[in-house]
Amino acid sequence: MKNQSETHFETRHTESLERMLSSFGPLGADDIAYIRDCFTGAQQTHAAGTPVPLAPERNEARLVFKGWAARGAMLEDGRRQIVGLNLPGEIIVASGAVDADMLVWALTDAVTIDATAFWTAMSQPPTQSARLLEAWRHFRTAERLRMARQVIRLGRLNAYERTAHLLLELHERQARLGPVVAGVLHLPLTQDMLADILGLSAVHMNRTLQQLRRNALVDYRAGRAVLQNLTSLAQAANLSADCGPSL
Q1: Cis peptide before 126, with omega less than 30 degrees from 0?
Q2: Which CATH number covers residue 164?
Q3: Widest CA span of the chain, in angstroms?
Q4: For site-directed labelling of 188, which of 70, 88, 195, 239 has its Cα 20 to 30 A away?
């Protein structure tokens, strides 16, 4: 039987994952207990800009507990393309040759928890309840949808649309972790980081944010952004009613 300190550790470190999964479907007390039992408490701290080591050969997974992490590629000339972000409550997984070619690093100071046992268990139903499996299915679908939308952003949207689209996505993802003030986005990303996500130069990124500010859509400051009109921002992102973020 786990002692009180172990139970507190597990509760504290899996809380963001529990909230994230619950946002995709209601979970019962047995589901929460199942999630906590899958985590041993092994954790790593990562300074901003340092790698998050993962072993693709064993399908290693890590839960982001604190901070933000990124996955992407570094070009020989020093340019960087971020293809995905991982926020608290989300899981980074390395699986197979494709992931072996991608870099994973902490964008901010971060803490991750070993989630390999949980990831493996969720890949072997039906040992879990139907509720948990359904929430997990929607969670994984949202991950794949985010990747598809990143391709759409880079391939078809202009800089103004890309930026609006990304900010709306991040706002919705943060809302899944708990109540947020409408339009207020925790954004611990520099303009250079945003440029690396959106495939823009630093100068173009700065001009785009200034344009959004002039149009009274986004007030971007260090550490946060205020999305001043979500409806107008969705229109600026060129989103139709049936293909909003929904992430």
Answers
A1: yes
A2: 1.10.10.10
A3: 59
A4: 239
Question: Which three-class secondary structure state does DSSP give residue 79?
Answer: coil
Looking at residue 105, what is its pLDDT?
95
CA 19 – CA 17 distance, rounded (Å): 5
Average of per-residue pLDDT across 53-72: 89
The answer on 195 and 79 residing in a single domain is no
Domain match, 121 and 25 both: yes
Range 128-132 average pLDDT = 91
Q: What range defines the domain where residue 221 resides? A: 157-236
pLDDT tens string 71-118: 999 888 888 999 999 999 999 987 654 455 678 999 999 999 999 999
Residues 104 and 169 both lie in one domain: no
Quick check: is 215 in a domain?
yes
| 220 strand-pairing partners | 225
Q: Which regions of the chain does DSSP assign to beta strands (E)?
A: 43-46, 61-66, 69-74, 80-86, 91-93, 103-106, 110-114, 184-187, 218-221, 223-227
Residue 27 DSSP label:
-
Please state, in angstroms and rounded to a whole number, the distance separating the CA atoms of residues 58 and 71.
18
